[in-house]
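BUG-240 | component: ligand-complex export | severity: low

The export step for flavin-adenine dinucleotide jobs runs without errors, but we want the raw record kept on the ticket for reference. Input record follows.
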Amino acid sequence: MQRNHNHPNQFAMVWIPGINELPMSVMISRESGKAAFTVRKHGHASTGLFNVKVGQQIGVRGPYGNSFDLKQGKLLLVGGGTGLVPMMRLLTFLKPDDDVTLLIGAKSKDEVFFEDLANSLLDKNSHQVIVSTDDGTYGERGYVTEVVKKLVSEIRFNAVYTCGPEIMMYKTVQLAHSKGLFVQASLERMMKCGVGICGSCCVGEDLVCRDGTIFDGPHLLSNKEFGHFHRNKAGILENY
Ligand SMILES: Cc1cc2nc3c(=O)[nH]c(=O)nc-3n(C[C@H](O)[C@H](O)[C@H](O)COP(=O)(O)OP(=O)(O)OC[C@H]3O[C@@H](n4cnc5c(N)ncnc54)[C@H](O)[C@@H]3O)c2cc1C
Ligand code: FES
């Protein structure tokens, strides 16, 4: 399949020799013409990637996945955790007259990142970057979806885009859809092949790597697994 390699969103499969291969969102780079990855040190494989030294080799295949449908006007972006990576990339595709609200959700202050980067990427736009932390140690107190609820009841956004923890995306999609707003979410699922062969990333009938990772809100809300179940490494359905 021929793919345009300059789309907002998209991921790559990153091989850490001797350890594993992981899906990683393509991140913007300070160096023109280059891409980057942002790694959150978590389990075995991401720690292996995190510890890679300059000069050490890794394997990268991709980019894979579709892209957000770019709308113009008043835009609401909602990101949490490493779901902020595709949001940063999306910011670089927006038009100068777009009016952008970016919501960053985090558990606490020490998990807030990309706030300064977002403000600098948006310096030519009318914009606001709002941070909320679950424990109230920085920005608004509480779940970011409470801010989404307030904003979508006050402002008629032309589009809502979200990526992050699935419960956050589920609530965001529900809230936006209930107001009749265009909404898309970028899903994360267990990925092995990344190209539609192994089936490990299925959400109902959809394969996230092949059919997504971005899906329209109404399509997601018609899928009984979205926001409720995901598959573990053995392919077994688990509750969120
Ligand atoms: C499309 C996509 C983009 C992603 N982008 C980023 C990113 O930009 N930065 C980042 O740090 N992380 C990203 N992740 C998550 C990353 O791929 C790993 O899931 C995460 O780093 C934990 O892996 P681990 O093996 O260290 O942890 P483990 O402790 O081995 O696993 C912890 C959990 O991570 C998830 N996971 C593990 N292996 C995979 C896999 N092969 N595919 C999907 N999920 C897995 C599972 O939910 C698992 O329960 C992305 C995932 C997807 C699907
Ligand atoms: S990861 Fe194999 S089908 Fe999606």
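Assignee comment: Attached the raw record above. The mean pLDDT is 93.
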